[in-house]
Write a structure and sequence with these properties.
With about 625 residues, this protein is an alpha+beta fold. The chain has twelve helices and 37 strands.
Length: about 625
């Protein structure tokens, strides 16, 4: 039995059972528990407190019981309203608010979230509506996988998705013991606070998968005392974790056709393709690791590591990068540093983890120029699957020009098809020529199924002859092995290269038969105008530069004219632009638009009206402008 001043706890069954309850309870030197709509924990030094979670904010009326005069910082484990509903009081108090990175917009941008969130015909079951009713300003996001000093305490932030995709746990060493503040990952031995929160998508239970993986991550940090957002302090944690893992696995297996082995997924995420080439079999999309004898590693693509499921939503809180596979990379393969990451293309599932790798590992991003431009300014483009944030590139590569990384030479080659902004990455490892092809085509090893579906997406700017060109590239490179983003590695022989050649030609032929290209040739995209940037923000009364790319869809030279359609009261200079353009060629025009002073609007629309020769094509493209 532990006797803690003001509170009595009985040790039993791997947890604590409550005896006498008062408003604030001392758990350790400078560590307090205050019971509100959730458990609020106070870390106190020198009359100043750091709070973990905030509840309704009633704790501010009881600071004296914590031995504090003021709160300097509030760390949130997740966005749910029972954790955060009183945050406006914290702001008024002068406390700094720190939130999970992937959930920030559910704090300081929740007003927009409420306006955008689908409420009819939705299949996104995440509890993102169990959020603040009004936005609050935040000081910033917590530094995942790193230790930062808050008040008088060193706090390590550990991603622990489950109850929400963006949930965090905080580790603090006090008096020689490691305390883990775990939010709602665990309620008590074998129990969670909410089963409903574990269902992120219709008919799925992704949160249960993620919770088990998070329990492994947390246990690897060897906490001595677990402090949940609901429930009692838990010690020792290991039996409580083991029981919860057992029950969650039983629940998951009850909804599967075959048993799930999360321990194998967690401890052995990598498939050895050859001694120096690994495949991450747990990630979405698939990432690959090139191992150097120097102890460094180069990643090809790195999106969503150790994926537990992909929620239906598309807001930032529905996509969460983390780094659990790196532990096995170091332990099993002697990697000392993830030195470089290279993308095959810009899609979120291939690059979502890049910024986190840079922040945590110091990883450099090397990227071919056309892909780098999309990563650097995603708001410039009207494309699917853009990551939410700019991804700075440390080394811009020129296509066709080899680059040396330790004992390897890697070369990027344009690989349009799946998307215009993609490359093949060619290198030799362990005596074999390998080409990373991203998502260019599917692969199958089922002899009863004709292999290879050419993975075209029109909105990614697919062009009719792209797969003809990629088949020709593969023949020139003559690889032994192709590695791809969502399918198993594929051994390559002449028959396979011929298959890709035939399929590429067939796809091009079908488009030429189906489209009226001899009359009007807008290629496979079916449009002749693009405005950049696609998304922008401008102050009311200030000018915004827009660039318009236009295509002449006819065989011969024609006058191409573009006129911008702007909201009433906006100025556009020039009102119209024109140039003589060769057949099936492109021209670029520059405009300035200016909203009137005092205007404030979200997503004002600017259209581009195209005329080529005597043919009117109308407003084929738009751009979106926020005026503030």
């Amino acid at each position: 039995m532990w006797t803690i001043p003001g509170h009595l706890w009985h040790r039993g069954g791997g947890s604590f059972t409550k005896g006498v309850c008062v408003a604030a309870t001392r758990l350790a030197d400078g560590v307090y528990l205050f019971r509100d709509t959730c458990n609020v924990y106070g870390l106190v030094r020198g009359r100043e407190a750091v709070l973990i979670d905030f509840g309704d904010g009633t704790v501010l009326e009881h600071l004296a019981e914590l031995g504090a005069d003021r709160v300097t910082d509030v760390l949130l484990t997740h966005h749910h309203r029972d954790q955060v509903q009183g945050l406006a009081k914290a702001v008024a108090h002068g406390a700094r608010i720190w939130v999970p990175p992937s959930e920030r917009e559910l704090f300081d941008g929740v007003d927009a979230h409420w306006q955008q969130r689908a409420i009819f015909n939705y299949y996104d079951l995440r509890q993102d509506r169990f959020s603040l009713l009004e936005s609050v300003p935040v000081a910033g996001t917590v530094p995942e996988y790193r230790t930062r000093r808050f008040g008088g305490f060193d706090v390590t932030t550990l991603p622990t998705p489950g109850h929400t995709l963006g949930s965090e746990s905080y580790l603090v060493d006090v008096g020689g013991r490691r305390l883990a503040f775990t939010g709602d990952l665990i309620y008590g031995p074998g129990k969670v606070w909410s089963m409903a929160a574990l269902q992120w998508s219709y008919s799925s239970v992704e949160g249960a998968y993620a919770s088990v993986l998070s329990l492994y991550e947390l246990q690897a940090r060897e906490p001595d005392l677990v402090l949940p957002s609901h429930g009692e302090p838990i010690t020792p944690p290991r039996p409580a974790f083991d029981l919860l893992e057992k029950r969650l696995r039983a629940f998951v297996d009850s909804r599967r056709f075959a048993p799930w082995d999360p321990r194998d997924q967690y401890e052995r995420p990598f498939q050895v393709i050859s001694p120096h080439l690994l495949r991450n079999r747990t990630s979405f999309a698939t990432s690959y690791v090139l191992l150097s004898d120097t102890g460094n590693a180069l990643l090809i693509d790195f999106g969503l590591d150790m994926i537990a499921g992909l929620p239906v939503g598309d807001d930032r809180s529905s996509r969460r990068p983390w780094l659990p596979s790196l532990t096995a990379l170091r332990r099993d393969f002697g990697v000392e540093r993830v030195e470089v990451a290279m993308p095959t293309h810009y899609h979120d599932d291939h690059v979502a983890g890049f910024n986190l790798l840079r922040e945590v590992e110091g990883t450099q991003i090397w990227c071919e120029r056309t892909v780098a431009e999309v990563l650097a300014v995603p708001s410039r483009y009207d494309l699917p699957c853009l990551w939410y944030d700019p991804i700075p590139v440390d080394r811009v590569l020129e296509a066709g020009r080899p680059v040396r990384w330790h004992e390897y030479e890697l070369t990027t080659y344009p690989l349009p098809g799946h998307t215009l902004y993609a490359v093949a990455i060619a290198f030799e490892v362990d005596g074999r020529r390998v080409v990373a092809t991203g998502d260019q085509q599917t692969t199958t090893h089922d002899p009863g199924v004709e292999p290879e579906i050419l993975n075209l997406q029109y909105k990614n700017r697919f062009r009719i002859d792209d797969f003809v060109a990629s088949a020709e590239l593969y023949r020139r490179l003559d690889p032994h092995l192709m590695i791809s983003g969502h399918w198993l590695p594929r051994e390559v022989d002449d028959a396979y290269l011929e298959l890709l050649t035939v399929k590429g030609a067939e796809l091009a032929r079908l488009h030429r038969e189906l489209l009226p290209l001899s009359d009007v040739d807008f290629d496979a995209e079916g449009t002749g105008v693009w405005i950049r940037p696609y998304q922008s923000t401008v102050a009311a009364g200030s000018s915004l530069a827009l660039e318009v790319e236009a295509r002449n869809p006819f065989v011969g030279e024609e006058k191409v004219s573009v006129r911008l359609a702007v909201p009433e009261g906006w100025r556009c200079d020039p009102p119209e632009a024109a140039a003589t353009v060769a057949g099936r060629a492109h021209a670029t025009f520059e405009f300035e638009v200016c909203p009137p002073p005092g205007e404030h609007v979200r997503r004002a629309r600017v259209g581009a009206d195209l005329t080529v020769g005597l043919c009117r094509f109308g407003q084929q493209a738009e751009a979106l402008v926020d005026v503030r």
